[in-house]
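Listing S7. Sequence submitted for prediction.
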Amino acid sequence: MIGSKNLTPEDLDKIENSLLVEELRKAKEELFNLRFQSATGQLDAHGRLKAIKRDIARIHTVIRERELGIRAVVAAAPKTTKKAAAKPAEEA
């Protein structure tokens, strides 16, 4: 999830605050490790540094917007099955 180009603010909306803080901690730890690899000349994918930095910024932005009340946590909608979707049609 973290460090992928597919991470969007909409994806982060579905994550609750405690898990978001945990993901932030993991991303910062990974950034530290990547910087260490870069300093020692062992880093192969330099684009990964940029992706991790952007993800950290996105997470910080979502957390701050939630603190200010700009963004709310979006609860994932319950999945409906074909049976449940067909039931109202049968009743009519």
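Caption to Listing S7: primary sequence and predicted structure tokens for the chain studied. The domain at 9-91 is CATH 1.10.287.310 (Helix Hairpins). The helical segments are 9-13, 17-40, 47-68, 82-91.
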